[in-house]
Amino acid sequence: MITGWLRPSARCGWVHDVPAADPPPADPPANRAVEAVWRIEAARLIAGLARVVRDVGRAEDLAQDALVAALEQWPASGIPDNPGAWLMAVAKRRAVDGLRREVRLASKVAELGRDLATVELDLDVEDDVLRLMFTACHPVLTPPARAALTLKMLAGLRTEEIARAFLVPTPTMAQRIVRAKKTLADARVPFEVPTGAELSPRLASVLGVVYLLFNEGYSATAGPDLLRPALCDEAMRLGRILAALAPHEPEAHGLLALMELQASRLRSRTDATGEIVTLLDQDRTRWDRLLIGRGLSALDRAVELGGETGKYAVQAAIAACHARAHTADDTDWGRIADLYGVLAQVAPSPVIELNRAVAVSMADGPAAALALVDALVETKALARYHLLPAVRADLLVKLARPDEARAEFERAAALTDNNRERDLLLTRAKACDATPTG
Asked: DUF6596 domain: from which residue to which, for each copy (predicted)?
């Protein structure tokens, strides 16, 4: 789906006191290892705790307490063999301690303490994560709040990272997350997967946040690496469960198709040193043909169900154009540009328009695309979106305007928090010095 600089970007569709302590910025070497473990284990830990304490906000507080304990102890003792179980054990002890303080009846404390003591980390983990997702996506929350809460609890992102992903100030995002957790608690939202007639109305929100989770794995908001494959795998696993839960919902199959088609390119998106390889330069023999086959089958199922114009199905159709092209030159860019036109009608967004401009540049030339991009320059939602100047710079290079392109590449580099993207943008900026002017 995404060409050149553009990543799959459901997260930006909602461009539109402080919560429990976020995972602190890593200080090498010990804290960096702790943060890496947190990114992997956060969703399962919070989900398992939420099933026990029946309060998402409380579950996150307990998980954060366990994280603080890890930061205090692991640098000296080393990372345990099963860090997830260690974190769960600490969180359970904190939960029992809290119950002892809060519950007056000793018999009740003992009963709840025994229940907590029997909870194992791997007990119903898959169901727990799904329950957490449906809870975080409850209709009592606004769409932006659902997305933010999911990225915080399932992707383990810090509040400032989520704020950057949604192009809003960090205090605004912090307040949004605090209000979301309070709203869930006040509404006594049950920690469960809805069934029957209750499932369909809530499915769209869950599909949206599953794609947000995938996006963060496909192109990380911040950090030293472009990819977080474990998040992509988790998002696809959840997508398969949702497609099975709602077999007649075309968008469930459309999203699954989109994720699997894009995940097929993961191995080729970086080289042996972790540097970015753009789509046109990727070794297509490294694309995962099994995932492509599964993605195309899921797309066929979405179309059979009448969902060919659903926003995920359209994006999957774009990804399928790339998957079916044996070489970059075989890509049907005209078809891709047309599909982006459909997508712009189905799910209007300045990011979609930016994606469409890239496709137009490949189909009709950089001059036509630059006019589309220039029309987006004053868009408030994209003011700090690094891919806007990055795309503009790429077009300026093709139009033999290197001085302007260099300035745009440098501006894009200053806006991104992903180290790999920044390095590539600065390399492209430097290369402009050797580019002849038109």
From this structure: 202-302
Domain range for 74 is 17-206
Which of 179, 206, 233 is the last residue before a domain boundary? 206
In a domain, 201, yes or no: yes
How is residue 86 written in tokens? 């260690």
Instruction: Indicate which CATH number applies to the domain containing 387.
Output: 1.25.40.10
* Closest of 331, 307, 303 to residue 319, by C-alpha: 331
Q: Provide the whole-model pTM.
A: 0.68
| pLDDT tens for each residue of 12-52 | 332 223 334 344 444 546 667 777 777 777 777 887 887 77
Quick one: CA torsion of 52, 56, 59, 60, rounded to 10 degrees? Answer: 160
Dihedral-angle region of residue 271 (phi above 0 means left; psi in -120 to 50 means alpha; beta otherwise): beta
Measured at the CA of 139, the angle between CA 136 and CA 140, to 5 degrees, comes to: 85
Cα 71 from chain centroid (whole Å): 25
Q: Is 334 exposed, middle or buried (0-12, 13-18, 19+ CB in 10 A)?
A: middle
Q: Is residue 275 part of a domain?
A: no
pLDDT, tens digit (0-9, with 9 covering 90-100), for 282-305: 999 999 999 999 999 999 999 999
